[in-house]
Specification:
Layout (H helix, E strand, L loop, with lengths): L2 H31 L32 H22 L7 H33 L5 H28 L4 H26 L7 H8 L1 H13 L7 H25 L8 H16 L5 H30 L1
């Protein structure tokens, strides 16, 4: 193959990766976009308006929607990482060629999320009380949260597109809980409430544990350093839901803006309660651990049978 043909092929692959990233960024935002993306009502809005009169916004900017924001933005990056694995399998693509493709996919996600961020914050700034310290603090806090969520999504994209099963398993552990929230949000926004049974949402509640368990089974224990991935994933499965609940509860109360001491005190109390036995996180960890161990044993048995049959 000539150098021109090689460059053309590589350029096409990079374009496919970039387009995949753009689509995945849109998929991440889909639960919000299909729900009728109007800016949620704001406590600091300059004029009193009904919900249906709020302007269109590509992100649900609100202190009551911070966990939703993290979910929408982080899952977009995670889906892009999975797309890279499907489009450019590690077994068929050397690392030197796959790495730029993963970065192109991440860039595609970033383009979508930056556009959505600029549009949404422009709308928010136009409607907030001008020159008010509380409005400035609110605007800056939301912006910091959105930036952190975008970074988390880009990290997830690179982890899930990696060659190493251990690195991919770590990415699954990082994104399992946000993905479960994303599925719940999609179901709630796209189906009528009469068609969603409690059993359905009960199954979604276990989705993060199942994903983590399957990822750990695929990761295995060899080499032994992968035990650290098991510990990290199980810790994330236990801690991340508690963090989300704590953030939702604290920001959902009418604490005086800027009272960081009171917010920290309340967050510690809620976090301690949700990390305890009553929070249910320990049961999710046990389910993931059981799936991981059972899957590891099953894969090891299959591997030995394959070696025996070949011998």
């Amino acid at each position: 193959m000539s150098h021109t043909a090689i460059h053309a092929t590589r350029g096409k692959d990079l374009g496919v990766a970039l387009l995949a990233g753009v689509l995945c960024g849109l998929i991440g935002l889909a639960p919000w976009l299909v729900s009728g993306p109007r800016l949620p009502l704001q406590n600091l809005w300059a004029a009193e308006v009904p919900p249906e009169a709020m302007p269109l916004s590509l992100l649900p900017l609100s202190q009551y929607k911070l966990v939703t924001l993290v979910t929408l933005l982080a899952v977009g990056g995670a889906v892009a990482g999975v797309a890279v694995r499907l489009l450019f399998p590690p077994r068929r693509w050397p690392p030197a060629r796959r790495r730029p493709l993963a970065w192109c996919a991440a860039a595609g996600v970033l383009l979508v999320q930056l556009f959505a961020t600029i549009q949404a914050f422009a709308v928010l700034r136009n409607g907030l009380v001008d020159g008010d310290a509380a409005s400035d603090l609110y605007f800056g806090g939301l912006l910091a949260g959105v930036i952190a969520a975008i970074i988390a999504g880009l990290v997830a994209c690179l982890l899930l597109s990696a060659t190493s099963p251990a690195v991919v398993a770590l990415g699954v552990g990082l994104m399992a809980v946000p993905f479960g929230n994303w599925v719940s949000a999609w179901a709630a926004d796209t189906a009528s409430l009469g068609q969603l049974t409690p059993a359905f949402f009960g199954l979604i509640r276990w989705l993060p544990a199942v994903l983590v368990g399957l990822a750990l089974a695929w990761c295995g224990f060899r080499p032994p350093v992968r035990v650290l991935v098991w510990v990290a994933d199980l810790a994330l499965l236990w801690v991340v839901p508690a963090l989300f609940i704590s953030v939702d509860y604290v920001l959902g109360t009418r604490i005086r803006p800027g009272d960081l001491a009171e917010m920290l005190l309340m967050s510690r109390q809620i976090l301690a309660a949700t990390l305890g036995p009553a929070g249910g996180g320990g049961l999710s960890v046990l389910v993931a651990l059981a799936i991981g161990l059972a899957g590891t044993v099953a894969l090891e048995v299959l591997r030995r049978r394959k070696v025996t049959s070949v011998a």
